[in-house]
UniProtKB/TrEMBL annotation:
<dbReference type="InterPro" id="IPR034466">
    <property type="entry name" value="Methyltransferase_Class_B"/>
</dbReference>
<dbReference type="Pfam" id="PF02310">
    <property type="entry name" value="B12-binding"/>
</dbReference>
<dbReference type="InterPro" id="IPR058240">
    <property type="entry name" value="rSAM_sf"/>
</dbReference>
<keyword id="KW-0411">Iron-sulfur</keyword>
<feature type="domain" description="Radical SAM core">
    <location>
        <begin position="186"/>
        <end position="417"/>
    </location>
</feature>
<dbReference type="InterPro" id="IPR006638">
    <property type="entry name" value="Elp3/MiaA/NifB-like_rSAM"/>
</dbReference>
<dbReference type="InterPro" id="IPR006158">
    <property type="entry name" value="Cobalamin-bd"/>
</dbReference>
<keyword id="KW-0808">Transferase</keyword>
<dbReference type="InterPro" id="IPR036724">
    <property type="entry name" value="Cobalamin-bd_sf"/>
</dbReference>
<keyword id="KW-0408">Iron</keyword>
<protein>
    <submittedName>
        <fullName>B12-binding domain-containing radical SAM protein</fullName>
    </submittedName>
</protein>
<keyword id="KW-0489">Methyltransferase</keyword>
<keyword id="KW-0479">Metal-binding</keyword>
<dbReference type="Pfam" id="PF04055">
    <property type="entry name" value="Radical_SAM"/>
</dbReference>
<dbReference type="InterPro" id="IPR023404">
    <property type="entry name" value="rSAM_horseshoe"/>
</dbReference>
<feature type="domain" description="B12-binding">
    <location>
        <begin position="9"/>
        <end position="142"/>
    </location>
</feature>
<keyword id="KW-0949">S-adenosyl-L-methionine</keyword>
């Protein structure tokens, strides 16, 4: 009988969504693939797609898997990861292994929870397979680089592993999940997630990438990336791609080769998300925009973060606003939708700083009617430079996993001690109203959006724009109503 390994992906948010989306659990699939190829039987339970996940979990535990792996991020997902770990200990005897962003950032604190036996720190493809082999008795635990564990009452670590070579990794075993459950409709087409690189060399002070990927960027060779995508598209009849990586365009020559490969292979797919770094954006030439359109690119997210020079300096984001506006006007001559991403709620940020962001946002959409504007709320991640700044401004460092559960951006917007009372109110208002400030709020078919939400969004948009322009946060009855009916702001 083949030895079994169980992997679980926890919930991270529940409730009604105007724009339903369910991303492929790539963090779990990436570690499952080499384990499966090594001859183990791998079962994946995605708590988001399995209403009866408890019964499935308990049944799987009766088969005594070698271990149960759980991937989790900082915030509400920890609540579900802890519940799963507790059930594993109650109904089974398998060791519990945590991986993902949160345990990688805080491995020692994670192991203080009695229901967690091992932490895989950083990338798990090689480490998790070696850990499975060690638990099976094929090698000593001390030889597995990248793990933390308890032994004789003491926490031990084996040191960081070397980074994974993406060119040498096998194609992801998507057959381990039901891919149809993860289709996302963009521009009227079904899309799936894919990646061709990892990490980022930038030194943004708020980003956990600086800790997890140690400011390194690694990428598949263009030929390998094109072949992987071609096989993925043909095997699963994929209509569109969401390229889930920090900066597809960091090496422009590589990016151009991949896009030309899409055209040469006649893939005829839509690329509805492909991130571009703020520095690389300014190197884009008109010919690159033509290439992007021919290759099927529909949308490019661009992380600006703030219209305030003071805040961009705090974040280490040296953006030339005039160059940004020039590129925005260039994009207006294409069919490509630029999505400009702002953040708010930073330590030391003032109303004037936010006013500069608002002014820039409205200028961008005035000069490019296809542009989308999104305001996200800053979340402090441990190990980052800005986390230490938040601590200096009143953030109390959580001392257990349970205390990290409320680290949800909407919860922090209400309770972040580094924000003044007025800034909390402004941030809450902007979080809600920014959905409606683009030229076409809650647009269909860019996203598959509830028809009712789209209608309400279009009717409400003028009020939202007025609130945002004036930073008028008083009497937010619409926000209160949306929260009451649980259609906005549910945390966990």
């Amino acid at each position: 009988m083949r030895k079994r390994v169980l992997l679980v992906y926890p919930h991270y948010v529940t409730g009604w969504l105007a724009q339903p989306r369910l991303a492929i659990p790539l963090s779990v699939l990436c570690v499952a693939t080499p384990v499966s190829r090594a001859g183990y039987e791998v079962k994946i339970i995605d708590q988001r797609t399995e209403p009866d996940w408890r019964s499935i979990l308990i049944n799987e535990l009766s088969h005594e898997p070698i271990c149960v792996g759980i991937s989790t991020m900082t915030g509400p997902q920890l609540k579900y990861a802890l519940e799963i770990s507790s059930l594993v200990k109650k109904y089974g005897h398998s060791p519990v292994v945590w991986g993902g962003i949160h345990p990688s950032l805080l491995p020692e604190q994670t192991l203080q929870n009695e229901n967690i036996d091992f932490v895989v720190q950083g990338e798990g493809e090689n480490t998790f397979l070696e850990l499975v082999q060690a638990l099976e008795g094929q090698k000593p635990l001390s030889s597995v680089k990248g793990i933390w564990y308890r032994e004789n009452g003491e926490i031990r670590k084996t040191g960081l592993p070397t980074f994974v070579d993406l060119n040498q990794q096998p194609p992801i075993a998507y057959d381990l999940i039901d891919l149809k459950k993860y289709s996302r409709v963009l521009f009227g087409l079904n899309h799936h997630n894919f990646f061709t690189s990892r990490g980022c060399p930038r030194q943004c002070t708020f980003c956990y990438n600086t800790v997890i990927n140690r400011k390194k960027w690694r990428a598949m060779d263009p030929e390998i990336a094109v072949n992987r995508i071609k096989d993925f598209v043909k095997k699963y009849k994929v209509q569109g791609l969401i390229i889930n990586e920090s900066n597809f365009f960091l090496d422009l020559d590589r990016a151009r080769s991949i896009l030309k490969g899409f055209i040469k292979e006649n893939l005829n797919i839509a690329i509805s998300k492909v991130n571009i770094d703020f520095s690389t954006l300014f190197e884009i030439q008109p010919d690159d925009l033509i290439l992007l359109e021919k290759a099927g690119c529909r949308r490019i997210p661009v992380a600006i973060e703030s219209g305030s020079h003071k805040i961009r300096t705090l974040l280490n984001k040296p953006i030339d606003i005039q160059l940004l506006l020039e590129v925005n006007r260039l994009l207006n001559n294409t069919k490509i939708v630029p999505n400009y991403l702002f953040m708010m709620g930073f330590p030391t940020e003032t109303r004037d700083d936010l006013s500069e962001s608002i002014a820039l946002a409205f200028k961008l959409i005035a000069e490019n009617q296809r542009a989308g504007i999104y305001f996200n709320i800053y979340t402090p991640y441990p190990g980052t430079e800005l986390f230490n700044t938040a601590v200096k401004h009143g953030l109390k460092i959580p001392q257990s996993i349970e205390e990290w559960i409320p680290f949800h951006y909407r919860h922090l917007s209400q309770n972040g001690p580094w924000l003044t009372a007025e800034m909390r109110k402004i941030v809450r208002m902007l979080d809600f109203c920014s959905f409606f400030i683009g030229q076409r709020p809650l647009l269909h078919p860019t996203e598959k959006t509830s028809a009712i939400a789209t209608l309400i969004g279009r009717l409400y948009a003028p009020i939202a724009r007025l609130r945002v322009r004036k930073l008028w946060y008083h009497f937010p009855i619409e926000v209160t109503a949306a929260r009451f009916f649980r259609i906005y702001g549910k945390q966990y």
